[in-house]
Amino acid sequence: MKKILNYINGNYCEAVSGKWLDNYNPSTGKIYSQITDSSQEDVELAYQAAKKAFPKWSNTPIEERSDILLRISTLIEKNLDALAEAETRDNGKPLSLAKSVDIPRASSNFKFFAHAITQFASEAHESIGRNTINFTLKHPLGVVGCISPWNLPLYLFTWKIAPALASGNCVVAKPSEITPVTAFLLCEICTQAGLPKGVLNIVQGMGSTAGHAIVTHPDIKAISFTGGTKTGEHIARTAAPMFKKLSLELGGKNPNIIFADCEYDKMLAVTVKSSFANQGQICLCGSRIFVEKSIYQQFKTDFVAKVKQLKVGNPFDKDTQIGALVSKPHLEKVVSYIQLAKEEGGTLLCGGEKLTVNGSENGYYVEPTIIEILDYKCRVNQEEIFGPVVTIMPFETEEEVLTMANSVKYGLSATVWTTNLNRSMRMSKALETGIVWVNTWLNRDLRTPFGGIKNSGVGREGGFEALNFFTEPKNVCIKY
Ligand code: NDP
User: Fold this and answer.
1) How far is CA 140 from CA 150, 169, 173, 277, 473, in A?
2) pTM for the full model?
3) What's residue 246's pLDDT?
4) Most ligand 1 atoms within 8 A of CB, residue of 152, 281, 283, 409 to mutate
5) Residue from 249, 292, 372, 384 carrying the catalytic annotation
């Protein structure tokens, strides 16, 4: 059986304990590889390698660091097919999605931060008359920890480690135990690209052991974490007394607000994607759909018809649009929310059942599900499901829909469909989220600040925000 190893100081190694965890293919429900079950001892080895590599890496000229990151980006591109197939086997997402989104974006993450670091400037303030000049040095932090989730495995893993490395830090990183494989394949790419030993160390294993050891390590200076709100809360509680820098990208329950004056056909096509792309397992999916009353009935009919046409199936099939959910426990969680929706008086407009796919009878498939709800405060409309399940309900006024949209504890993103410019500005200002998309969805420019407010997280990733996170500003004041 294929073994997924740790990558420490440029070498592949088993966990010190010699223990292994099973890794499942969600589209078949079968174990197909094993990963190291790392613990605190493995994290310590990774930390020591990173610490040793830091003085040289942090003093490597920016152009050289940038060149190495560009080579990593190019090698990801060259290995697109192999990486996409690995991602699909590990995660259950359609191969077409892994090829067009996940892997290209992992490559772009390295390319973007390879360029961004060459433009990362700091300010100077001259105090005329007082004969002083202040300027800011931006030092890398040292050894930092990056912990990423399973939904966009290589995409989000590289979104953290690329800026961390670009700004001169050495990294101890842990991908999700549920989707370890593409991070493992990245190790070989980093070696081929000439990344010096110890600069990036990848420890595989459970969040509660390996992840916890990274968070509690006394000398790992910062934690960049993407994952669930509960885990983020636990990490914040653990790391705060150690005065670590924390970037937390957490859950979402994002509103998709549709006004009658929208460009209807465009809205409908994008809403199908924003509801069900990646089986609804994107933190930015618009899982709460609010539709202006005058077009509600028409939207309901058209949306249900389009969603019923979505092809659910083996993620390796060319025409598959919805693949398998990532794991059995996650499948059960999603199904339990569909049950809850019925108990709460919701009406199933389509889907709602587990699905058996021919040839993959034990895979974790659920039909894309639309639930019409009566009360925006019901639990299915307030809690993150993170699967192919959306709620819909009508609204009458802007004020009313804003109350509904802002009623959740999350505040990651929102989508607004309207052709009224004034309304789009009013809504953008009033929505309690870190990101607002108007007449589009998942339209990303890597220079923009990315992240949420409320229980969706603390801090921002992307562009110079990420480089600021991974550096410590030092003010120097010179009297002349
Ligand atoms: P989890 O919080 O379960 O896990 C995220 C990562 O943290 C995994 O690598 C996990 O390891 C690790 N981990 C778990 N417990 C600990 C711990 N005590 N200490 C340190 N690390 C730990 O999230 P999921 O993987 O289930 O991802 C889904 C969630 O991620 C959703 O809530 C989604 O909204 C959110 N997300 C947020 C995004 C954003 O940008 N805001 C983007 C994408 C997803 P292991 O897997 O081994 O348990």
Assistant:
1) 28, 5, 17, 36, 9
2) 0.97
3) 98
4) 283
5) 249
